[in-house]
Amino acid sequence: FAQRETHSLIGEQNIFGRDKAKNDIVKMISEAAESNSNTLSVLPLIGMGGVGKTALAKLVFNDKSTKDKFDKMLWASVSNAFDLKHIVNIIIQSDSGESNNQLTLEALTKKLHELLRDKRYLLVLDDISNDNVNWEELINLLPSGRSGCMILITTRLSKIASELKTLEPYEVPKLPHEECGKIFVRYAFRGEKAKDRELLKIGESIVQKCDGLPLAARTLGSLLFRKDISMWQEVKENNLLSTGKGKDDILSVLKLSYDALPSDLKTCFSWLSTFPKDYDIFRELIIMYWMAMGLLNPASRTKEAIRVGEKYFNELAGRSLFQAMFLIMMAASHIAKCIALFMI
Ligand SMILES: Nc1ncnc2c1ncn2[C@@H]1O[C@H](COP(=O)(O)OP(=O)(O)O)[C@@H](O)[C@H]1O
Ligand SMILES: [Mg+2]
């Protein structure tokens, strides 16, 4: 798979309602860094896709008092990681910018140890989503020579969090309605000063639907930027597309994320859109469906195909696109068919 990466830089002015969470986590990290224990501390941030784990991890990473505690700070985006060697390479690359793909795992591990030797380091592993990787083995091969070293992970998978944790996992909470509203307004009006009161009122009900998920507020806000009131109404009423309006806008919002998908995932994703709008996506069903459509390497045996399907599903579930898709399916009744037509 091609990489869909996150990076550690942010526009912090765009992140709302996370001061307390950030301070709590910075404090946990500081305490762990200052303890004299020689074990590597692992702090997981857990929560559903789109709740804001990556955004929060960035705030923590960029906080001055975090920076003061460590000699070395690394941000590794591991959503697409497929094996140990790949991950070690991603970590080294996050420091030097150079890929050392050609090296053996042995040589890569040595390089990593050189890089971190005698350093008190903070390593972020953002978006651990592949549970076929032996993450414990990864943690075990990281040097823990100096006391106070720290690994911050973000993941949707609480099983992985509890396997790796040394500190109690931090569950990233949904945002309060008010903060979610700020995000929505930021994207729905961009810099515009004068905000239509009618729109703001409809916006209130739309934000309610976002249920504290920043991704939802952002997606729906972007969708409604410079749209007339009838479209706002449609989103509020859950029938954005019954009139055929709004189709192009939804597609352009979705397309941004869609374009970033590797091509084999694109095909599988497109087929998802042929499900009826309120379809509960059960992993097994989806995989069967892909299989029936011949998308999972038809030549291979069923077991192998299921494995590939699971891999694809996990890949998709870790992406904001997947959640955005749900939201938009809720907002628009016939979106599924439209997308199927446009994207296949
Ligand atoms: N507190 C927040 N304020 C504003 N935008 C946010 C906030 N948290 C997340 N976002 C935005 O919502 C989207 C999803 O957040 P992200 O951190 O990627 O979620 P996760 O990593 O949990 O899947 C991103 O576009 C992010 O910039
Ligand atoms: Mg993330």
From TrEMBL:
Location of the NB-ARC domain: 23-192
Keyword DNA-binding appears in the UniProt entry: no
GO MF annotation list: ADP binding
Transmembrane feature ranges: 321-343
Biological processes per GO annotation: defense response
Disease resistance protein winged helix domain ranges (all copies): 275-323
Keyword terms, alphabetized: Membrane, Plant defense, Repeat, Transmembrane, Transmembrane helix
PANTHER family xrefs: DISEASE RESISTANCE PROTEIN RGA1, PLANT BROAD-SPECTRUM MILDEW RESISTANCE PROTEIN RPW8
Name of this chain's protein: Uncharacterized protein
